[in-house]
């Protein structure tokens, strides 16, 4: 009698262990290092080490993980990630570790997404993402609910008390400062405040940086004036009006208009990520 290969001939019980070559690192043909280093050719994603070295580190990390040496495993994964920051196997295995042993579903989900952007048919990452996505959605929902409750609290405050007036003023400058700082404006909080309060120039800072402050401030004033009665819904035209003020001093020709070219957020510079249909 001929036994199918996966049956143990001695007992007839199915062998539940996978083939040993199946648990080795798979290297997907369609996802060569060359391909994704072309895609992510920015200095941030500089490949510091060879693929072989990185995969060896991952193998060792997996062994450490199996023998419950999680600290060591973490160090090895991090090492592999420095060597090959865009390698699908490095990303996916590290993400599995973060999910199982670090309880960090959010970062794990992020890394699965990254893996799938680089390698859209990565079967393990697809399965993993299917598991983490709903969990992250629940977490997002909880976080958004928390923000909603905070907003409700804020709406119930008595804004006319003098202490509250002072806070409102401070927050106004903080808001302008932080909003522009994350876009690369180098003015300090005090300098931002000076420009808004006195409309005078801060020595050594570019005209554009001054204009960004003036633009945002005029947009805030416009919103305060236009939307203070909460009854109306915000329309696309309203948003374009806000945009016109934000950018009016900096780039008058594109202010208040829709952009006609594609732009990318953060570390995504490539058009190929669009083909895969994955977006954040
Ligand atoms: C915002 O609107 C209120 C009420 O109309 C007004 O008193 C206040 O001066 C406005 N603030 C700014 C910065 O324009």
TrEMBL record:
Q: At which residues is glycosylation annotated? A: 224
Any GO MF annotation of the entry: nucleotidyltransferase activity
Which residues does the annotation list for site: Important for autoinhibition of adenylyltransferase activity?
Answer: 183
Q: Which domain of life is it from?
A: Eukaryota
Keywords (alphabetical) are: Nucleotidyltransferase, Transferase
Q: Which PANTHER family match?
A: FIDO DOMAIN-CONTAINING PROTEIN DDB_G0283145, PROTEIN ADENYLYLTRANSFERASE FICD
Q: Please report the name of this protein according to its UniProt entry.
A: Protein adenylyltransferase Fic
Species annotation: Trichonephila inaurata madagascariensis
| Gene from which the chain derives | AAEL005383
